[in-house]
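Go through this:
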Amino acid sequence: VQLQASGGGLVQAGGSLRLSCVASGTIERINYMGWYRQAPGMQRELVAVISDGANYADSVKGRFTISADTAKKMVYLQMNRLKPEDTSVYYCNVNAATWVPRTVKDYWGQGTQVTVSS
């Protein structure tokens, strides 16, 4: 399974960005999809995850919205009212069951940089 993320960039504080991620490979079933972020010197942290419903980190609630189209194997993150502290590398994450090999595991995208200037 491969994940390809896109949509990062440089934006001023208060602005918006939309991240997209598409999964490819021998996927039988997607269990959940999500976004994480990791700033320099910091641990990777959960931003949002979606399966039957959506859950968000407290720091992004009310500003970010996660959505997914499992038929297209895509997950999105709409980020509004961005703050400088949102600056980070954002990673998409998918937990999926695959046909070949026959397994269930987490997969990660390559990361996309989001920089918010003050």
